[in-house]
Design goal:
single chain; 408 residues; alpha/beta; Rossmann fold; Helicase, Ruva Protein, domain 3; Arc Repressor Mutant, subunit A; 3-stranded antiparallel sheet; binds adenosine-5'-triphosphate; Orc1/Cdc6_arc; ATP-binding; ATP binding; cell division; ATP hydrolysis activity
């Protein structure tokens, strides 16, 4: 019977490369930290907080810097008896209206058992409940709304909360909002009056360059990886790959962690560059598989049509032929088919997602046309579709044909 055996050649503390780890030091963000501290200064001075809007791509340290600075602020504020600071944090990802965010805030402030229902109240009633909880808390309250763009255009709370004091809803409590977003369009879409208040102080976090990512990785590797667990060029390679793609520290850290796991699984004592390469293609495949799972039904059926043609070794294949395959799959799954034009749009989307590639062909007088083929491994595409489409028989036939043709 196989037994578990502890492996600790590579990692000293693998959790330090994970999402929930809060770094002791923030690297390469001195300027942003200075501007951020400047925006938070009125809190220490005992005045009303500024509202702050923070934006930048995913993984560029918006949350890490915010958590770090608010911890420092909470510690430093204890020096001053006349400032009583509370920090509330809500991730808005699953809350897509002001109403839901307000309910979440009320329930964060209420003791267990006294929460309000998430539906059934007029919006103003929920806002009033929020004001009365905030008033009961007193002092200065900083509310951090991460992924604030999920609120969409139902942004009344972002208009009302910063004005609650001037409108007489709050007397003793001073409230400051910190909104965090990686959607650049969100700011532009906001009502100009909301923009004026929420974006009182705006901070932009640019993507990291390779040398900055190397420093972030070096300081994290000190905690996470054993002394001889990592070959010299590995951190530079992870940093360079992440910088070229997204400039995200999360991507660089994920790459290093996965490369370490690959090395560990091979029973190697050191992470080397070839482990990073393997980790990169694994992450790339995961990303594509995730993209495939998030497709709409017709996107999936259009993709399965290409998969089916690939099994028959008939790709690249033009839209017209793919459309026939797609119609047959729609019929098998009891789904009404879309017009060829719409299927063409789905194929273009799949191309944008990096799941398909397309070649443009010239066809004399009738203009150009595209032919499509898979840009991901056949087995990843068929596995992902088997998980999300209820077409077991058809998918088994496709696999069978692929096996016969030596595609898999
Ligand atoms: N300057 C930095 N120094 C140390 N670690 C960092 C730095 N920037 C980012 N990180 C680390 O990178 C990871 C991603 O950072 P973070 O979650 O702050 O990104 P984000 O900009 O908030 O991304 P998202 O918009 O996706 O939430 C975290 O593990 C964080 O600790």
């Amino acid at each position: 019977m196989p037994r578990f055996e502890r492996k600790q050649n590579i990692f000293r503390n693998k959790d330090a490369l994970g999402e929930s780890y809060q770094p002791e030091r923030i690297e390469e963000r001195d300027e942003e930290i200075e501007a951020y501290m400047d925006a938070l200064q009125p809190i220490i001075d005992g005045w009303e907080p500024n509202n702050v809007f923070l934006y930048g791509n995913t993984g560029v340290g918006k949350t890490a810097v915010t958590d770090y600075l608010l911890d420092v602020l909470q510690e430093d504020v204890t020096e001053y008896d006349d400032v009583d600071l509370s920090v509330l944090g809500v991730n808005c990802k699953t809350l897509n209206s002001s109403y839901q965010v307000a309910v979440e805030l009320v329930n964060t402030l209420r003791p267990a058992g006294a929460e309000i229902s998430t539906t059934g109240y007029p919006q103003q009633t929920v806002f009033k409940k929020l004001y009365s909880e905030l008033e009961a808390l007193g002092g200065t309250v900083v509310i951090v709304l991460d992924e604030i763009d999920s609120i969409g255009d139902r942004d009344e709370l972002l208009y009302e909360l910063p004005r609650a004091r001037s409108n007489g809803y709050l007397e003793s409590t001073k409230v400051g909002l910190i909104g965090i977003s990686n959607d650049f369009k969100f700011r532009e879409q906001l009502d100009p009056r909301v923009q004026d208040t929420l974006c009182e102080r705006e901070l932009q976090f640019p993507p990291y360059e390779a040398s900055e990512l190397t420093n972030i990785l070096e300081s994290r590797a000190e905690v996470a990886i054993t002394e001889n667990g990592c070959d010299g060029g590995v951190l530079n390679l992870c940093a360079a790959l992440a910088a070229r793609d997204s400039g995200s520290a999360r991507q660089a850290l994920d790459l290093l962690r996965l490369a370490g796991e690959v090395a560990e699984n091979n029973d190697d004592d050191e992470i080397q560059e070839h482990h990073v390469e393997q980790a990169r293609s694994k992450l790339e495949q995961e990303r594509v598989e995730e993209g495939m799972r998030e497709l709409t039904t017709h996107g999936r059926l259009a993709l399965l049509a290409v998969v089916s043609k690939a099994a028959k070794e008939s790709t690249p294949c033009r839209t017209r032929e793919l459309y026939q395959e797609y119609e047959a799959l729609c019929e098998s799954s009891g789904t009404d088919s879309l017009a060829q034009r719409s299927v063409h749009n789905h194929l273009s989307d799949l191309r944008m997602l990096g799941i398909l590639s397309a070649k443009e062909n010239r066809s004399g007088s009738r203009g150009n046309y595209y032919s499509y083929e898979l840009d991901v491994p056949f087995s990843s595409a068929v596995d992902a579709m088997a998980d999300v489409l209820y077409l077991d028989e058809e998918i088994e036939t496709i696999r069978e044909i692929a096996r016969m043709n030596g595609v898999v």
